[in-house]
Design a protein that fits this description.
mainly alpha
Length: about 80
């Protein structure tokens, strides 16, 4: 329950708004496929899951270091 109430951002509000608008439009126009699409958008917003999962397509914040640092001097080649 706490996952539903936390981490609301712009994209989550946008998905919820689009989903509710599409569901309303589907009932008004009697189009069940539009209602299904609206339900998917609303469910994504409620569960905080996008097309790529809960974390979206975001890259990890921290770089993972290999722990090996090369201390060899860099050699340059002059191009004429």
């Amino acid at each position: 329950m706490t996952a539903i109430l936390q981490n609301w951002n712009f994209m989550r509000f946008l998905r919820l708004g689009m989903g509710l608008w599409l569901v309303y439009s589907a009932f008004a126009d009697h189009q069940p496929l539009l209602g299904l699409l609206g339900s998917v958008f609303a469910l994504q917003a409620i569960m905080n899951a996008g097309c790529c999962g809960a974390s979206g397509c975001a890259m990890p914040n921290a770089r993972q270091s290999t722990g090996q640092i090369t201390k060899e001097p860099i050699q340059y080649e002059e191009i004429k």
